[in-house]
Amino acid sequence: MSYQVLFSQKTNAKEAVEELKQQKQTNETALVLYFASPKHYELNSLASEMQSAFAPAIVIGSTSAGEILSGQMTHDSIVAMCFDKKQIGNVKVQLLENISKGGRIVKDAFKNFETHFNIKMREMSHEDYLGMLMIDGLSHKEEWLNDQIGNLTKVPFIGGSAADNGEFKETSLFYEGKVYKDTAILMIAKPEVSFKLLKSQGFNVTDKQLTPTKVDEETRRVIEFNNKPAKIAYAEALSISPEEVESAFSKYPLGLIFDEENPFVRSPRSLEGNDIVFFCQVKEGVPLQLLEAKCIVETTQKDLENVEKELGSISAIVNFNCILRAKQLEKENITDKYAELFKDTPTIGFNTYGESFIGHMNQTSTMLIMN
C-alpha cells in the first residue's frame, strides 16, 4: 500500500474532514499527520472531527502558513498523510504541555518512550528510530527543546514550528482531538522501511559580518549590530537604504558559521523601529555572517536526487518548509517549479515559523523521506 495523501479546501471543518475521510483507502492506518490553515476553520471542531474520523490511529497535526502536497503549494486548506503500520512501524507520541515553564517535561516524556520501546533513549540507533517534533511557533522555546532532546538521545528529531499564515498571533497543535498552545508534540517511530532525514538549504556566505552588540534574547530582538542600530547596520552591510531593509530579509539572512556548506541560519522576521526581530534566538557577542540565498528549486532538486540515490527510491515525503523560503519562491515567481519537484511522490508539508533538525534553524526545509 502506498502512502496516502489527503487534501481538502472546503472551508467548513466537518465538510473538509468528511472529504478527507472519503479519500482514505485503507483500514490499516496507524498514524495520521495533518497540517491545516487556521483561516477558515474553528480549530476545536477541526481537531474533534479529525479524531473521530481517523481513530484509533494516532492523529496529530499543527496550524500552518501555507500547505504543501504532491505537486502543489496551497493556502487555506488541510493536507494529511496516512501511514500504515507496515510503513511507520511502532510509533509513540508524547504531548509536552506548558513548555514556557521548562522543567523535566522532556525527561519525563523520554522515560515513557523508553518504557514503550523497551530500550534506553541513548541506546536507540539513528538508523532504526526517527524522531519528529512540532511546537507552538510563538513559544520561543525551540532552542530549549532541541537542546534538551540533544542532551538525552542520539536520535535526531526533525520537524517544524506551528504557524498562522504570517499573522504571528496564535499558533496551535492538534493532539487526540484537542487544540493545544504553549505545547510541543514529540513522536518516535521505528519504521518498517528505510528512511532519511534531510536538511535542505542553499546559501553563499559573504564576507560581511554583523556582530549583535545589544540583544534582548528573550524576545529574539537585536537592538544593535556592530554598535549601531540594527536596521542601519544591516542596511550598510548590503549597501541599501534603511527603507529597503525589510524586503531584503528573505534573500539575505544571517548565519552562524561552523561549516560554510551548512550554516545555521538566523532569519530576520520583522522590523520594530530600528530593531530587528528574528525567528531564531540570537546571542549577544556571537558574530554572524551575512548570507545570500541560492536558487531554492535547484538546491532542493539536487538534495532530493542525492537522497534517492542513497535510498534507491522515494515513496513519501513530509516537508517542513520555512515561511521565508515560501516568500522567496513567490518573489522569484518559481513556486510552481518548487511544487513540481514533489508531483510524483506522495508529499505533505507546511510553511513553518522555524525548522528543527539537530537544533533550531530558519530558512531551511527539513524533510522526512521514506523509502
UniProtKB/TrEMBL annotation:
Keywords: Coiled coil
UniProt source species: Aureibacter tunicatorum
Name the UniProt record assigns to this protein: FIST domain-containing protein
Coiled coil: 3-30
Superkingdom field: Bacteria
Domain (FIST): residue spans on this chain: 28-229
PANTHER family named among the record's database cross-references: BLR0328 PROTEIN
InterPro entries recorded: FIST_C, FIST_domain_N
Residues covered by the FIST C-domain domain: 230-359
